[in-house]
Amino acid sequence: MGSIGINLQEVRRRIAAACVASARDATIVTHSDATGGKPGLLLLAVSKTFDAAAVREAHAAGQLAFGENYVQEGLAKIAALAELRPRIEWHLIGPLQSNKTRDVARAYDWVHTVDRLKVAQRLSEQRPPALAPLQVCLQVNISGEASKSGVAPAELPALARAIAALPRLRLRGLMAIPEPARDVEAQRAPHRELARLLAGLVEQGLALDTLSMGMSADLEAAVAEGATIVRVGTAIFGRR
Ligand SMILES: *Cc1c(COP(=O)(O)O)cnc(C)c1O
């Protein structure tokens, strides 16, 4: 097995250990459509800056869900690996400008970074009828930091209601990129806050089931707070 396959095994071991440590009964899944008895926890392999050959190697090791940050880079890989679909799925996890929505609506399965109604409306209008609805998460600016991406928590309920009503999108939940923190306790706080925000929306009647949180450095903290998708790049593909 190549190094990517070995790294994938190690990341799966870390996720499984984090589930045990927090008494979570979850199955680690490789595809968001995976069904089974237990709730699924999707390992999303973030392949940004790595080439199609690296994605192939991960796929050969059983990985089926891939995340890309940059729209164009992702589109090129999606095209280069077209013969692997629909077995593999593609998630956009980076910023999305409204002039790129048409390409994204045609090529991706998930978008984790919706934070404006206008972008969501365009994605819904442009999602081809032949495809399943585009799965989306709202990116929340959880640390309130200088980074301008993400909806402010106070604006979340209204935006979530508006986007949940769009016909060609399926709003699944929330995503965040917390500021780096040193220890697991400090890492857990923003993840707990995102989980609390999701629970609030569910209480208001929205059928949401997804918490996209946790990366190479903080996946244990995210799993402990209920992540259902962890987005892992470096620990699988190596340093960028
Ligand atoms: C790059 C990236 C990741 C993966 O980060 P690693 O630290 O390499 O695991 C996850 N989420 C987003 C939004 C990213 O941009």
Structure, described:
This protein has 240 residues and is an alpha/beta fold. It is 39% helix and 18% strand. The protein has one domain (3-237): Alanine racemase (TIM Barrel). It has 9 helices and 9 strands. Helix 5 (117-126) links the parallel strand 5 and strand 6 (134-139). It is globular, with a radius of gyration of 17 Å. Residues 46, 48, 69, 93-94, 177, 215-217, 231-235 line the site of pyridoxal-5'-phosphate. The site of pyridoxal-5'-phosphate has 14 residues, from strand 9 and helix 9.
Secondary-structure map:
Blueprint: H1 3-21, E1 27-29, E2 40-46, H2 52-60, E3 65-68, H3 71-80, E4 89-92, H4 101-107, E5 110-114, H5 117-126, E6 134-139, H6 156-164, E7 169-175, H7 184-203, E8 210-212, H8 219-224, E9 229-232, H9 234-237
Parallel strand pairs: 1-2, 2-3, 2-9, 3-4, 4-5, 5-6, 6-7, 7-8
This protein binds pyridoxal-5'-phosphate.
Residues 46, 48, 69, 93-94, 177, 215-217, 231-235 line the site of pyridoxal-5'-phosphate (PLP).
